[in-house]
Design a protein that fits this description.
Blueprint: E1 4-9, E2 12-17, H1 28-43, E3 49-54, H2 77-92, E4 98-107, H3 109-115, E5 119-129, H4 143-151, H5 153-162, E6 165-166, H6 168-174, E7 179-181, H7 186-198, H8 202-234, H9 238-249
Parallel strand pairs: 2-3, 3-4, 4-5, 5-7
Antiparallel strand pairs: 1-2, 5-6
């Protein structure tokens, strides 16, 4: 079964995450398929806006923890994180407006995908969070930077440093999402917004998006570089090893401190 589906509806390119049995947790094949799908829609002149949605109960529960930290070939931690960041930059620089239809778990990598969209439509059944700290890690594809730009530093610190998730009501009040609707209406409402964008002049769309993003784009790019360095270092720490061991063994982690 394809882990990512691609369709077109009235000028809207629709990308559907299709790993519902894993709450659309992202493994390497799914990540590659998502990148390929976005590239296909970027090159399609008939597509003037993009919708991200998901099959199953959740939008995306993050990186598949079953493969977290695994490396194939000769890639280092630095190489892997940098490659993932390059795709996030491509998403952020997409000239076509991206609308995300969020539901259920929107965690970790899934949260970063959502934060990099231009408009977020949320189900009332939402769990939005960046739980990487529970693994001895931190967000590494823009989560700290994008979240801070949307909700401010204090609230971003709460989410990043606690690893806690917030619900739809809180996410709307804080500015992490833009619309909240009932679960059975989230995809339709998000498609409606994407179709509204798709009906506008494409050059003006691209320029308007770029002008607005200009406010934070420099800081976000600089912050991505800091995330890269931090995450590469964290993969080598005793804290990371202890967090993974504690989860495997079903016990509370015992950190030695600084």
């Amino acid at each position: 079964m394809d882990k990512v589906l691609v369709d077109k509806v009235d000028g809207v390119g629709v990308i559907t995450f299709n790993r519902p049995d894993r709450h659309n947790a992202v493994d390497d094949p799914m990540g590659d398929a998502f990148a390929s799908a976005l590239n296909v829609l970027l090159d399609d002149r008939e597509v003037r806006a993009i919708l991200l949605k998901a099959n199953g109960p959740s939008f995306c529960s993050g990186r598949d923890v079953g493969v977290l930290g695994e490396r194939t070939g000769l890639e280092s931690d630095f190489d892997v994180v940098r490659r993932l960041q390059e795709f996030r930059v491509a998403q952020l620089q997409c000239p076509k407006p991206i609308v995300a239809a969020l539901k259920g778990a929107v965690l970790g990598l899934g949260c970063e995908i959502a934060l990099a969209a231009d408009v977020r439509v949320s189900s009332t059944k939402l769990k939005l969070g960046l739980p990487e700290i529970n693994y001895g890690l931190l967000p590494d594809t823009g989560g700290t930077q994008l979240l801070t730009a949307l909700i401010g530093p204090s609230r971003a610190k709460y989410m990043v440093l606690s690893g806690s998730y917030i619900d739809a009501v809180t996410a709307l009040a804080w500015g992490a999402v833009d619309f909240v609707v009932e679960p059975d209406a989230v995809d339709a409402r998000a498609l409606e917004i994407a179709a509204e964008f798709a009906g506008k002049p494409p050059i003006a769309l691209a320029m308007g998006k770029q002008l607005i993003d200009q406010m934070h784009s420099g800081a976000i790019r600089a912050g991505l570089g800091q995330e890269l360095l931090a995450q590469t270092a964290l993969f080598l720490t005793d804290d990371y090893k202890e967090a993974r061991a504690a989860q495997r063994e079903g016990r509370k982690a015992r950190y030695r401190g600084r």
